[in-house]
Amino acid sequence: MDHLVTLPVKIAPGLLRPLAYRVLSKKYGLNIKSDGLAALADYIGTRFGSNWRKDSATFQFLEQFAAIWEQQERGLFIDKNGVDEVIREVKERSGSTASRVPKQDLTSSKKSNTLDGFLARKTQNPSVEEDTLESGTQNNAENPDSILQSELSEPLLDWQAYYKLVDAQSHQNFRYDPASKQYRLKSKDAKDLILPRAESNVTLFKARYDVLRDRVLRNEMFQGGQDTFNPLSSMSNFKGSLDTPVTQTMTLTQIKNLLGRDGKRFLLLGLLRTNVKGGWSLEDPSGSVELDMTQAIPAEGMFYVPGCIILVEGIYYSAAHKFFVASVTHPPGERRDETLEAVGNLDFLGVHQLSSSSYISRIDKDLKIRLHLLERELTDHRVVVLGGDIFLDQLHIMEALRKVFDKLNDDPPITLVLMGSFTSTPIFPVMSSKNISATTAYKNAFDALALLMSNFDRLINETNFVFIPGANDPWTSMVSLGATAIWPQRSIPGNFVHRVNRICKKVFWGSNPTRFAYLSQELLLVRDDLNDRFKRHNILFPATIGSDAESDLEDSLAQDFSMQQIHDKEYESIDHLVKSKDQKSAGVQAARKLVKTILDQGHISPFTSFIRPVVWDLDHTLHLSPIPTVLILCDTSASQFEVTYNGCKTINTSTFIHKRAARYVEYRPAFRKVIQEEVYF
């Protein structure tokens, strides 16, 4: 049946005011300015015509307008600029692409949306597609055009519009407000780009504490009722002693509230650091208290270093002015979707739209689902990450790169990540033995890389190259000389890479770390030897030193006894030598320990400024709240591993060269699958 055509009319703002007041003001509590009301009247008169009073679509439009306005947190006053932006959003959601579909293609589109689309997606998940087909058949019996109308009402998505690389300098700065439990966008100041302000250093650890404390209070163990939080509950050695139920519910206590409550048990959350006496102290925004860790028993499977935020349980004695710790653990972790739901689905990276002082960008749930479905269709997309320490000044590294590029050139990935350092010696202002400055030699190394890349046409034209600097790369190496430097590290200066930029069509010189948004996923690229740093500064608890030595002695005696049995008897089956299912290898345990510490702390570098200094105004780029979908870590001090914790897949690429093999990791976002590859040269 043909639709009736309504003629556009000019509506006076006063005529629209009663309806707008009833919907926008009375129902949603919004105040309409005169220019905003005039803009609404112009759009409604153009779209709904002379029947705008009787047409129910006018009321539905105002409802949708108010919902989007509140969803985007535009404030209480509706002005003309806000009306124009929300109307633009309404048009995008209503499906402006329907007019771009030719009429002669309706039949073919309908077939592709039913049969061909089903056959194309059946190979990915047959069981789900069968259920979808059955339910779709029942619905189409009532309305044959439902699928076609739904497809036409949704605009087509371009995956490149949701592909974005964000370095530390362009990352949006959201500050958490513990009073309102919301994130506030901090506007950039030109002075901050030159030198951070002292206030940023004061609030550096407080910002981390506020985020973690709010995450802890969201945990079900801290919601009251019969649930009780006990840090020792995760320790296998104390399973027997925890069988008796505890009637008192544990709650967090501020340090300032310990005064006058002598001999009572408390659970504290605070920053662990050394005090002026050389002992340990715990700090929170309300104060600090000295810790007695002689009898403290830590939860297993985590590192404890100065600078991390921990939960401690114990008894406070006012006579000694000390808190005697009984148990220690990290704050409980949280999945990415739960964190995003708690903070209102904020778009931290600004992939969909950059936030401003008057507008906070948020991730639309329906759009997120559509992006996830689009990910599953793009099965040929791959992200390849090479191992670290790609020393371009060494010939065998260049030969390994040639072999890897030759293999990848047949089927180029969408992104190829190269991790530094890109020179074997730190760049510093001295002359080398060949009377060539270190900076000139560094530039010549990248020129040689550009010459090598020019031999692979498909790679340089189809692949987006991403370079992450290391400790030996400029300009940080000028000060640190390859040692621990300030974080985040800026990208490699453009003075050294002119030829690479001319050869490659798409190049991104990222900072360390760099965030990578791909449709509904967030990837974090990090180059740092975290494993060694955690081991060097890990705290040894006196109460566990003796038990660890005894357990090591028992393990060695048991191993000697089993080896003696092997020599004395001839086993007919290898089952006697196979480990139990619960027993994990040392490499897996070390990887889990590293990943759990980082993700539970909600920070890539949970150390004090004396161990790992950070740029005060850029500390927010190191936060892991919410945790990323994939954490790609290049830690040359640890072996390759793949660990999934709280839905975050963590990958360590380790070193690029291992013996005579070039190693890299291939990640497929459609399946969230990781493949470790080696190319011998």
TrEMBL record:
One GO CC annotation: cytoplasm
Q: Which UniProt keywords apply?
A: DNA replication, DNA-binding, Nucleus
Keyword Nucleus, does the record have it? yes
Biased composition regions of type Polar residues, renumbered to the chain? 95-115, 134-144
Quote one Gene Ontology molecular function term.
DNA polymerase processivity factor activity
Identify the residues that the record assigns to the DNA polymerase alpha/delta/epsilon subunit B domain, covering every copy: 384-640
Q: Specify the domain of life of the species encoding this protein.
A: Eukaryota
List the residue ranges of the region (Disordered). 92-144
Look up keyword DNA-binding and say if it applies.
Answer: yes
Q: Which Pfam families match?
A: DNA_pol_E_B
UniProt cross-references to InterPro entries, sorted A to Z: DNA_pol_a/d/e_bsu, POLE2
Q: Where found? A: Nucleus
The primary site where this protein sits is nucleus
Gene Ontology terms describing biological process = DNA-templated DNA replication maintenance of fidelity; error-prone translesion synthesis
Similarity annotation: Belongs to the DNA polymerase epsilon subunit B family.
Q: What is this protein called?
A: DNA polymerase epsilon subunit B
The lineage, from the top, is: Eukaryota, Fungi, Dikarya, Ascomycota, Saccharomycotina
